[in-house]
Every structure is written in structure tokens, then in C-alpha cells.
Amino acid sequence: MPQRPYVIDEMISAKAIAARIEDLARDIRGEFAGTDKLVVVGLLRGSFVFIADLVRELDLPVEVDFLEASSYGNSTESSREVRILKDLRGQIEGRDVLVVEDIVDTGHTLSHVTHFLSTRNPARLRTIALLDKPARREVDFKAHWIGFEIPDEFVVGYGIDFAQRNRNLPYIGKVRFTDDSP
Ligand code: IMP
After folding, report:
1. What is the pTM of this model?
2. What is the domain partition of the chain in residue ranges?
3. Which stretches of the chain drop beneath a pLDDT of 50?
4. CA distance 114 to 97
5. CATH number of the 14-30+37-152 domain
6. What does the DSSP assignment read for 74-136?
7. Residue ranges lining ligand 1, Cβ < 6 Å
8. In the annotation, is 105 catalytic?
């Protein structure tokens, strides 16, 4: 199916993102000061730019791992099946873990992933998301740290895609369709 034409309007600049990450990193360093080795878990694929910038601001011993989850919506119910497509390579039992996500939208993905990881008995399990769209929430989930709260708009850039495009934009932009369809 051909894609509808759209343009991208900048919503959060690269500079604003970098400044916010410095603040977040300061808080995270405070929380995990003295940790043996923090396991920073990026959720593929949308968090890959955020995790790269975040870990470089964390002056802590870190190990980086990745997890891939996929959520399949059911349009008739507010239920979702979340599947783990790629598990961690390392062990997290007794370790401090920080899960890094691009966006909390309905909340299903992070709620499932944190439940999944907590069954492995990490010492501490914390979550951070660059963006939060509280208006879209279907399950009660709140990340420990949020970069920016945004309205219910479809966004791209800084790792986040629209049909696998636009992940490489250095800023967060909102998708605006330029045809006449509703
Ligand atoms: P949740 O399970 O609904 O919270 O899903 C979060 C996932 O949905 C994110 O990791 C993104 O992959 C995707 N998502 C939610 N909102 C957007 C958006 O505005 N642009 C691109 N992907 C989005």
C-alpha cells in the first residue's frame, strides 16, 4: 500500500533532548550511586539512540543489554498481547536494572516487560522513557523517569520510526499528513 504523504514538524529539538538527558543522568547517578554494575536494558528498536546518549552521560559502571518485545493490539478490547521476541543475553538476578524505552503509550509494553524481568529477581528494577503520552494510557503504568510528556500525536525521530522510516532524525518531530484523508 503506498504511504500517505506527510511532513514532519519539529516538536523537541536535539538541543532540548541533550539538555534533558543531562538532568536525567544526574538523577539516575544519584539513585544508583555505589552500584556494583548497573544493567541498562534497551528495548529494541526505538530506544537505540536514547540509550546510546544516556549511557554516555552515566558516570557509573554499566553493562548494556537489549530486549525486544512486540505488542499486538486487539481493536475490539483494550487488551494487548505482548511477546518477548529477543531475550537478554545476561543474567539480572540480584543486579540493579534500568529499562530504557522510547515512548510509553498505552503502557502495555513496559508493564509486561517489567513484570517479565521482575520474575528474575533483580535487586532494583527501574524504568525510564524518553517520551510519555499519558492521554493514551490503557493500563496503569508509570515510568520512574520521563524525559518529556507529550500530547496524543504520532511522533518520529531520535530512534523512533513511522513504518521503519525517520529513525535517524536528530530531533523528535510530529507527523502531519498532507493529503485530504481524515
Ligand atoms: P505501548 O505498549 O502502547 O506503551 O507501546 C509503546 C510502543 O509503541 C513504543 O515503544 C513505540 O514503539 C510505539 N509507539 C507509540 N507511540 C508512537 C509514536 O508516536 N510513534 C512511533 N511509535 C510509537
Report:
1. 0.95
2. 14-30+37-152
3. 75-76
4. 10
5. 3.40.50.2020
6. -TTSS-EEEEEEE--SS--TTSEEEEEEEEESSSHHHHHHHHHHHTT--SEEEEEEEEE-GGG
7. 46, 71, 101-109, 154-155, 160
8. yes
